[in-house]
Amino acid sequence: MNDYIKCIPIVAAAFLPAIGLQGAEGTPLSALDLDCVVHVRSRIAPPPKPGKTVSGNPISIGGRKFADGFGMHGISRLQIELDGRATRFTAWTGLTDDSPDPGPVWYEILGDGRMLYEGAPIKRGEAAKEINLDIKGIKSLVLAVQSPDYFNVHTAWADARISYEGEAPKAVIPPREKPYILTPPTPREPRINGAAVFGVRPGSPVLFQVASTGDGPMRFSATNLPSGLALDAATGRFSGKVARPGKYPVSVSASNALGTATREITFVVGDTLALTPPMGWNSWNCFADHVTAEDVRTTADLFVKHGLRNHGWSYINIDDFWMTRPPPDDALWEKLAERAIERGYAPLKIPGADDLPRLAGPARDGEGRINANPRFADMQGLVDHVHSLGLKIGIYSSPGPLTCGRCTGSFGHEEQDARRFAEWGFDLLKYDWCSYRFFTPPYDRISKTELQRPFIVMHEALAKQPRDIVFSMCQYGLGDSWEWGADVGANLWRTTRDIIDTWSSMSGIGFSQSELAQYTGPGRWNDPDMLVVGHVGWHAARRASRLAPDEQYTHVSLWSLLAAPLLIGCDLTKLDDFTLNLLTNDEVIAVNQDPLGRAARRVARDRNLEVWARPLADGSVAVGLFNRGELPAKVTARWDNLGIHGARVVRDLWRQQDLGSFEGEFSAEIPRHGVLLVKIRRAEKIVDKNKQGE
């Protein structure tokens, strides 16, 4: 008991007789401290409210109204400490009638580590299902809701009650699980890692760092270099310009005192950038509105110090709040406030003069070029420093007049801003919808043409620049952006709202991506948002990710299978061994960076157990065996579902070891919320030398 973080008891036992809640009908669960409910799917979300749905409405399931209970999201969990004093649990369950998505979901109840109740799938509009469960002797009760396909599902535990004797039950938040490291230490011998293909436009400057590990000092060499491309033998950094379009396979070697590693890296000179998903860091999940140039510079230095660069991590991206903010008396505020009201949005909040004063300053100079705020006084120097480390750097803006943080956006200045970003030397632009919503119809009436327009304008502006700038489109998947993101020139596009570091948020986003796989490929990537590992906090007191260790392995494995951009947002000054190990497994990264660029799909599902697979360029298959349930379970990958046959070698990518040769199928025991990520390749035929010539 002492290992748990206890929330407030349901009702203090001394008061039960007076208020008449305990007895044959039991104590209402809605009196529990609902802060212990684990269901958060947005960064700012209040705990459930007694008698209300997630949306704040009275609880109604299948047209039936309930006076008591509480709403939860479709992926949620509540753990209650009973200590064997309870006798019965009763409730009515189902999707609330105001649920945005239709489901299905299913309810599960666990007691002392075993399944007590497994509900059938239920959808919005179906009648509430009753649960009446004997829980005599149970010490720990877990109420869980599982949502296999839909992220924004609202459910409820209506008229939920526990009958008990003695001290009242308590809701608890389970203790943090101890992290464990799976990946072996990096070998001392040379090894070349990361992307094996790189896209650049004809005549654009090349900056490509060979990602290599092994003891230093390291020397690099290359053969078959195209005209205009050079390799620095000491740093392993390619630079120069290639004028002639084409594919140029270059043989690259890295050598130290222990040996030499050689690998082919293909430079594709043409119109397509980001031939593999970008890997790097973004400032938002860590520093949010308080980001400074020093934060960014320090992070770039730590990329080198901790060796992330050696494993292919290359982008250092500045999110919102690098620019200035209009003063409170600027006419823009009144104009946007009027537009917000016209379109039915909440009134626009105008910041006070003392709100983040270090954002003060003119939005643009005398020639209309966008200015950085005083926290980024030397933007050119910052960019040059990041480039000097062999890293790339990204910047942020919005097609609206204000960013999401109400700083200066690019509205009406798209070409000037694209030129400014190129002059500074930026390599990526994240372009966030934000205040542009005030210049379009409401979301339920907006057309695809209106959604596309601002991104086409910025893409055309970027295309005119003399350097390559990867275009990251952020508008949260509005209008099924994955279907047309490539058409407006984007290289990656967000498919969901913002992620946070909870199982509900991460799994709800990640496991909803299967049907989007057909839209991804070299130069065009679905972006399910950043990795929430390490120390995060959105400038609040930064803390270790709330994801359990197994959940973090699931997170990185799933994003790698999805061919998603890998962008961490953690505080690297607090980088721990577990997180560093999680981010530097080259066999896992190789799945994400595979040049074929095919994203994984779900190929099998049995309730909470799922198998996802993606084909790789070498003819093998990367497969994730996932357990989304609350108990350990055996998951099986069958060859028929993977489109393969015959004897196959299965390799555990996190442990970097072969598990053996299998035919027809492969099974493994997977922990709660865990994964086994494997690579399945054709078994080589072994010739018995003693039988040769028979």
UniProtKB/TrEMBL annotation:
Pfam families, sorted: He_PIG, Melibiase_2, Melibiase_C, NPCBM
Group of enzyme by EC: hydrolase
Keyword Cell division attached: no
Catalytic activity, EC: 3.2.1.22
GO terms under cellular component: membrane
Name of protein: Alpha-galactosidase
Keywords per UniProt: Disulfide bond, Glycosidase, Hydrolase, Signal
Residue ranges annotated for the Glycosyl hydrolase family 98 putative carbohydrate-binding module domain, each copy included: 28-164
Record's catalysed reaction(s): Hydrolysis of terminal, non-reducing alpha-D-galactose residues in alpha-D-galactosides, including galactose oligosaccharides, galactomannans and galactolipids
GO biological process, one term: carbohydrate metabolic process
Gene Ontology molecular function, alphabetical: alpha-galactosidase activity; calcium ion binding
Family membership noted in the UniProt record: Belongs to the glycosyl hydrolase 27 family.
Taxonomic source organism: Termitidicoccus mucosus
